[in-house]
């Protein structure tokens, strides 16, 4: 996107965002506004975690860095030298070709840096700026610190930008607890913001569908969740928020300021209104507990935004679907299953129909007041097709019948299987369709998005392989070799998902790349006597140049006489070593296994042919 924007507009846009930083840098370079605009237009912003190494001493780093936010510690010979703040600059400040840097830079906390290639940096600065750099004694150590600390806008600090994680400071604890994964405070929020509102809403909806005497069975559960929600409101009194006071970011307890937020009055209503149940003589006051579903939105803000949790979004979506279906089911029980008198005349069931009914579980609607009615099989009475109706004997079985009705309405849009007997039931059935259809679209969109997110690499890889096969086929490649290419690409995906290493690893900062590749492949370099004695900084940079290649079984890797300036390190598998004697007969010399190597001489001395042939015995 940066390349598609006009040069002047790109300079104006970048200068607007980085003006304070680049003006502080200009106190060292003395290049004026023209230099400032060119630097920021070519710079790329990078983000570093606390304690992350940006450059290491003796690394070949082709970058120049400008501190945008945060603090950078400069070290030489493993000792702290100086602290760099906003506008300071470090990296190779002279020459167009990379050379070993003379210091180590480490992010003290979260840090944002502007990164520029040394070639672009040298092309931009003029002779006067080069003179200023050469006169600076710190430049000999590849860094220059600003003399005057630039006042940071508190609303533009990393601390304020990264705010949002829930924090609390309990009276009996000195440290501040954050809602990080697997922490006790995180589990408490899962309990009070997700499980509590979800369970209390399910119980409240179910309680509307039962008789007053049955309410006593579940009333203690409802009271327990009320107490839990009260404890949550009390805990919110001690939460910490990041505020700007006198130009500085400070963590301050919320306390009584929580009542300035209207959301907490909804929580209070969800606790107070159910207390009027006995006064008004109706259980409908208990529906006020449904107001706690607002806590699910808080749960979404705390755990589902960004990459804070992978489980929370799945739980939230599952809870929404379950609550919707549960609410529709309980609504059907309330609308269609509480009539004392059956709304139509019931025909007498024939003996054939009675033989298919289990009267231990089902009863006639005339023998029970209310209940969710279901139809029987069709039978004939006086030459006419008639339907009978049955209701469950036990009241809790009404939920199963109502759930079946909702499921039938969802799966049989054009078949009138659910018989609506009264006008309210007809209206409710229409309402169900208006609710279920958007929910179905949403569920399908979530499912498609999840599948695409999981398999998009496979789709992309398969598309590229298909293009390759079509190109080779049109180019006249024989079918045998086409089949070999197909088998290889299939094996490549099964072994390592079609890529040598995830692309994100190649896009990581240089020192992080060195850490990743060192952990994966450094043991191979240490097996070679030539590299074992070399300095660690050289091996760390060399290991990032390694590329992983998968060789299919039964294939020649290189043949005798080939000229390839490559060193091969066997990460997995077995490789056979062959040579041709004077009589022209091929003989196997040895077998190389994991952690073996070959091709050292051609790699060190280019244009030197291989003296042996190497043949893959297994997948290597």
Strand and helix map with partners:
Elements: H1 7-29, H2 32-42, E1 44-48, E2 53-55, E3 63-69, E4 72-76, E5 79-84, E6 89-91, E7 104-107, E8 111-117, H3 118-124, H4 127-135, E9 143-144, H5 158-161, E10 167-168, E11 177-178, H6 184-207, H7 215-236, E12 239-245, E13 248-253, H8 263-272, H9 277-280, H10 294-304, H11 311-336, H12 351-354, E14 362-363, E15 374-375, E16 379-381, E17 384-386, E18 389-392, H13 397-411, H14 423-474, H15 479-496, H16 503-506, H17 510-527, H18 529-532, H19 536-543, E19 556-558, E20 568-569, E21 575-580, E22 586-592, E23 597-598, H20 600-604, E24 613-616
Antiparallel strand pairs: 1-8, 2-7, 3-6, 3-8, 4-5, 4-7, 6-9, 10-11, 10-12, 12-13, 14-18, 15-18, 16-17, 19-24, 20-23, 21-22, 21-24
Helix pairs in contact: 1-2, 6-7, 6-10, 6-11, 11-13, 11-14, 14-15, 17-19
């Amino acid at each position: 996107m940066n390349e598609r924007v006009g040069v002047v507009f790109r300079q104006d846009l970048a200068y607007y965002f980085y003006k304070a930083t680049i003006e502080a840098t200009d106190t060292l370079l003395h290049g004026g506004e023209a230099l400032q605009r060119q630097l920021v237009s070519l710079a790329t912003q990078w983000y570093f975690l606390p304690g992350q190494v940006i450059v290491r001493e003796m690394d070949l780093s082709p970058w120049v860095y400008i501190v945008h936010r945060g603090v950078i510690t400069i070290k030489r010979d493993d000792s702290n030298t100086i602290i760099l703040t906003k506008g300071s600059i470090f990296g190779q400040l002279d020459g167009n070709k990379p050379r070993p840097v003379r210091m180590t830079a480490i992010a003290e906390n979260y840090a944002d840096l502007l990164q520029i290639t040394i070639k672009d940096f040298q092309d931009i600065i003029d002779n006067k700026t080069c003179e200023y750099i050469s006169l600076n004694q710190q430049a000999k150590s590849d860094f220059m610190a600003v003399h005057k600390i630039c006042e940071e806008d508190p609303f533009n600090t990393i601390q304020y930008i990264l705010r949002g994680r829930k924090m609390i400071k309990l009276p009996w604890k000195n440290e501040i607890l954050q809602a990080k994964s697997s922490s006790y405070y995180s589990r408490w929020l899962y309990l009070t913001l997700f499980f509590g509102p979800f369970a209390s809403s399910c119980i409240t909806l179910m309680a509307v569908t039962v008789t007053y005497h049955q309410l006593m069975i579940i009333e203690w559960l409802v009271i327990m969740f009320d107490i839990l929600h009260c404890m949550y409101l009390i805990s919110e009194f001690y939460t910490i928020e990041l505020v700007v006071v006198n130009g500085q970011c400070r963590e301050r307890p919320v306390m009584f300021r929580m009542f300035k937020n209207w959301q907490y009055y909804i929580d209070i209503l969800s606790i107070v209104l159910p207390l009027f149940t006995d006064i008004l003589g109706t259980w409908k006051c208990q529906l006020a507990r449904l107001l706690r579903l607002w806590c699910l939105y808080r749960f979404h803000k705390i755990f589902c935004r960004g990459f804070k949790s992978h489980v929370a979004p799945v739980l939230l979506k599952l809870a929404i679907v379950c609550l919707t279906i549960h609410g529709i089911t309980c609504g059907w029980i309330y609308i269609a299953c509480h009539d004392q008198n059956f709304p139509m005349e019931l025909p007498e069931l024939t003996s054939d129909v009675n033989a298919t009914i289990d009267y231990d579980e089902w009863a006639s609607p005339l023998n029970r007041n209310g209940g969710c009615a279901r139809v029987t099989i069709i039978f004939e009475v006086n030459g006419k097709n008639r339907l009978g109706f049955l209701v469950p004997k036990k009241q809790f079985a009404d939920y199963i019948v109502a759930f079946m009705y909702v499921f039938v309405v969802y799966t049989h849009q054009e078949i009138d299987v659910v018989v609506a007997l009264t006008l309210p039931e007809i209206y409710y059935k229409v309402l169900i369709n208006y609710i279920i259809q958007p929910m179905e679209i949403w569920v399908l969109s979530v499912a498609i998005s999840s599948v695409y997110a999981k398999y998009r690499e496979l789709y992309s890889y398969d598309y590229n392989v298909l293009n390759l096969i079509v190109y080779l086929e049109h180019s006249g490649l024989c079918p045998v070799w086409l089949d070999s290419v197909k088998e290889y690409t299939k094996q490549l995906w099964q072994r390592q998902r079609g890529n040598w290493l995830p692309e994100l690893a190649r896009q990581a900062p240089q020192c992080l790349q060195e850490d990743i590749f060192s952990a994966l492949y450094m043991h191979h370099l240490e097996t070679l006597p030539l590299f074992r004695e070399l300095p660690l900084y050289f091996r760390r940079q060399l290991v990032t140049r390694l590329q992983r290649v998968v060789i299919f079984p039964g294939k020649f890797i290189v043949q005798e006489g080939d000229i390839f300036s490559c060193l091969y390190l066997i990460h997995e598998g077995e490789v056979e070593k062959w040579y041709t004697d004077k009589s022209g007969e091929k003989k196997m010399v040895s077998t190389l296994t994991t952690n073996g190597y070959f091709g050292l001489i051609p790699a060190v001395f280019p244009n030197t042919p291989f003296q042996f042939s190497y043949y893959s015995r297994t997948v290597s």
